[in-house]
């Protein structure tokens, strides 16, 4: 049996006014959506470069062209982010009964090397946790997903990561490096500086850093 995890990207379809709204201002809704689209493409590239039992995009708009070849596409379900995360794990795990490694679309600086490290850790631990600089998390891996590990965790707060880790007490947890989510213009600049090779960084440079707007 394939012991590699399934890798999931949880994402919104990049539409103006619906994604990266904290980038507006200084960027227009259209520019924010463009940055989100490039961040998602960078993320999918990193996942494509990572050995996996399956690669899955869980999206709010699973229409044609949602993901490149090699990805399965399924619809998100649930209301709050905790529900969307919980059911993404549940739905993907149910397909193959294999561990699930999940990332979002807010960290275009991730690489196949970093995800491979997380995937390897998930073969040796019950969970893998990637903390984010804003107090949340950019990656979560579970060998045996359980909705109860996520449902009710308060999201988008400075203590989100700490609360999620509390849910994992009693399990073996491997911790990944701290990363910065692209939440606002300052974070976008910081991410682009750390990952100048990405599509996201190139698009940010073309649009301008936003500081003078």
TrEMBL record:
InterPro entries in UniProt: Nucleotide-diphossugar_trans (IPR029044), Trfase_1_rSAM/seldom-assoc (IPR018641)
SUPFAM superfamilies registered for this protein in UniProt: Nucleotide-diphospho-sugar transferases
Pfam families: DUF2064
Signal peptide per UniProt: none
Protein name: Glycosyltransferase A (GT-A) superfamily protein (DUF2064 family)
Organism of derivation: Nonomuraea polychroma
């Amino acid at each position: 049996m394939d012991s590699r995890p399934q890798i999931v990207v949880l994402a919104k379809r990049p539409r103006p006014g619906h994604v990266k709204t904290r980038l507006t201002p200084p960027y227009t809704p259209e520019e924010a959506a463009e940055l989100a689209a490039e961040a998602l493409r960078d993320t999918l590239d990193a996942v494509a470069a990572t050995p996996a039992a399956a690669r899955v995009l869980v999206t709010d708009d699973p229409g044609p062209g949602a993901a490149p070849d090699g990805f399965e596409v399924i619809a998100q379900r649930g209301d709050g982010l905790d529900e969307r995360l919980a059911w993404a794990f549940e739905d993907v795990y149910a397909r193959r009964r294999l561990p699930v490694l999940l990332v979002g679309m807010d960290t275009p600086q991730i690489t196949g090397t970093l995800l491979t490290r997380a995937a390897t850790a998930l073969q040796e631990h019950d969970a893998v946790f990637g903390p984010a600089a804003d107090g949340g998390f950019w990656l979560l891996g579970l060998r045996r997903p359980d909705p109860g590990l996520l449902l009710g965790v308060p999201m988008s707060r400075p203590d989100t990561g700490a609360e999620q880790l509390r849910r994992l007490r009693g399990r073996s947890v491997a911790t990944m490096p701290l990363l910065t989510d692209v939440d606002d213009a300052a974070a976008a600049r910081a991410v682009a500086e750390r990952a100048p090779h990405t599509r996201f960084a190139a698009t940010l440079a073309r649009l301008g850093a936003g500081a003078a707007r």
